[in-house]
Every structure is written in C-alpha cells, then in structure tokens.
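User: Fold this, then the next.

Assistant: Folding the first:
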Amino acid sequence: MQAAAMQDHLRDRMYEVSPEQFEILCKMVLSRRLDTESMQVTAFRQDDGIDVEGVIEEDVVRVLFGAQVKRYDEGNTVSNGHVQRFSGALAQGNYQTGTYLTSSSFTGPARRAAENLQIHLVDGEQLAATMVSNNIGVAERGSGYELQPAFWDALTEPERTDTIPSNEVPLANSFESLREFLAAIDETGGTRAEINRAVPEFDSRHADLYGTAGWLLGFVHEDTPTAVDGREVRRWGLTKNGVEYLRLHESGDTEAARERLIAGLRQVEVVDRLATVIAERGSLSHDELKAVLAAETDLSESSVARRASTLGQWLTVLPEIAERPEGRSKKFVSV
C-alpha cells in the first residue's frame, strides 16, 4: 500500500493493541529512531509517570531523557493536565528532556504547555509517519509498503485456544534462574550471546526456555532481531510487569514479588486449566496431570513427562494448591 494508506493502517493497529503493547511499540520506535550506538533505552524504569527512559551520549554531551506513553482511543485527547504531571515526573527524576507519545492527539492547551515546558509531543499521526518514513515496523516493497512481520511479532501475546500449542507449555523449572535471566536482559541488549556472557550457565537452549517462560508470565517480550555479523539475532526485552517483579526482588520485598509472580501464573493458559481441574476434583495425581497435558496440548508423549514436572512446580506457587506425597509419587491438592 502507499505511504498515506500505510500510515492510516498503522494508526488502526495502534488502537487495536493493548496499552502495554503500545508502550513496547513506542520503546522500539525510540530505540530505532535515535542513535542506538550512543543510546540505551530501558522501558518501564519508574512508577512516577516515566514509561521509557534512556541516556544519549555524544562525546562531551550526556542527556537523560524520559518518555510518557498513552494508548488512547481516537477522540480521547491528552490534556494540559497530563503534560503538567509529566513535567513534574521529569523534574522529580532529574531528566533533562522528555517526550510524550500517544496514539491519539493533544489538546491545544496541552501543546502550548508542552512548548513552554520544552517537552516534545508525538501524536498518533506523527508516530505513524515516523514509522513509515524510517521503515520501522514496515518495509518498502516496490512503490509501496508492507508490514514487517518481525516487528509486530514482538508485540504478540499467548493466545487462548482449545488446544494449547507446545510453545505455551513451560519447561523452565527454577524461578531463581528466571530472575537471573530477567536481570541479564535488564543489563544487556537481550540477545542470547549477551545473556550467556552475563550468566555463563545460560546457553542458547536455556535462554530460549527462560525467555519462553518469561513471555508466558508476561515478564518479557520478544524484541525485534538485531543484526550481528550480517545476520539477524533474536533478543528479548522486559515488560513493565517484568521490571516490577525484578525490582521488588532486588528491594527485598519478596512477598510483593511473589504476588506479582502469582498474577503472572494465573494468566498462563495451561496453568489456569490445570488449576481448574484441581479445584473441581479436589486433587490431581502426577499421572493424572500428565494425562490432562496430553489431552489439552499438542505435546509429544516424551515432552509431556518433562513438562509435567515443571508445571507441578508452577502450580504449587499458587496459594490454593499444595503438593502432597502419594506413595512413591505425589499429587496436587486444593487447599
């Protein structure tokens, strides 16, 4: 499609995604639009109105910037009050400059306030135009444009279907290792090689296992690939929930971190189905758990046995489920 039509299509996509997905979209646009060699963009660092932050370094200049992101429906505009509160958040966090991005538009008073406060505003129309003119999320094909699948795949979330696909059944069985994985993403660019350098125990296989686990829990998103030695390399990025879970653990608030983990577990389709079966029956043996997995997923017979062990550990994090011995095996009971 032509540039104008693609811009309209991107506007429609912005309205269709969730607020969390829109934040990730804006993070990726900022990362690609600015000089990525002299800048790092980290999403969701603050709880005070800053959704994305970054540092721009050029020789003798170092600038800390913050961005606010609002996914509003068409017609729901960003007001002067929103801009004023964002200005306060920038001052509180000692940010030198700020950008406010929205899928919709800004009121006249909001634009005048932003001009006085030296805050850059990007509305949905400008954001879509920027994406098209810089080939972000789109690619030129002949005289027109088409969507770039890798960019939009980074915004996907697990789907609820009758048969659960194998890639939505976790195999990562250590939440301590998951936290190490999240911390490695936080400290690096999120590629498997960088994660392995940060945590040598994480080879490519383990990085993928814990990346999938984090994705299912809503803690990570699969970012668009980066080019390394002429080839595209997969990488991960943290979501808002992932950053909050990590920060709660780092601050020693393990109880709040556990609640965040439980909330993530409840959104995992296979965990939800197994928990429902346990609640209905009162208990579920390990063999019965494997039978449910075989019936509800497209896993192979050998994979069912391995993943049943992981799911047993995930289930017992839920406060309403406990593990009890049953002969030489174990069962999961409703408490």
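Now the next one, as you asked:
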Amino acid sequence: MEMPKENMTDLENGMVTIIQVFHKYSGHKCKLKKAELKELINNEMSHFIMKIHENETLDELFADLDQNGDLEIDFQEFITLIAMVTSACHQLFNPTL
C-alpha cells in the first residue's frame, strides 16, 4: 500500500506496523521459524509477554500457533498470537470492565 502514513487512521497505522514487524523477523518465505518468533516476542512484545527464556515455553507456544504443522509460523498464525495477546491485555487498558 502506497498511502502516506499521515493520511491513515491510528488503527490503519497499527495494522501497517504489525505487518512491518512480522516481515522484519520473518525469513525469505515470509514465515517465522522458532528462533525468529522468540526474537520477535522478546524484542517487540516484552511489555505484554514475559521474555521467553525456557525452550519448553517456546515449544508450547509454537505448537499452539502452528496450526498447519509446517514447523513455521505464517502471517495468519502470527495474527492469532497478536489477537490473543491484545485480548488478554484489553483489561489492563480498560480497567472499568
């Protein structure tokens, strides 16, 4: 999309940022391997998800996200993670719920 970011809404800018962050860490096939997912989470989501230090934790998360069993996380599978974390954090930003 070639629309200048200043013409986009806050939500559209957020969506572009999610896409850009995914591609910053994904390999040439536009998929995340386990190490790339760990790096993305530890670098980009450390305020919402505790840093992953244990391989078991990473293995469990990866298995839950890898819906097609190809041992890589594609963009649709990544969006599942984003949706889950956003939903879980919703109450932090809206304590009146």
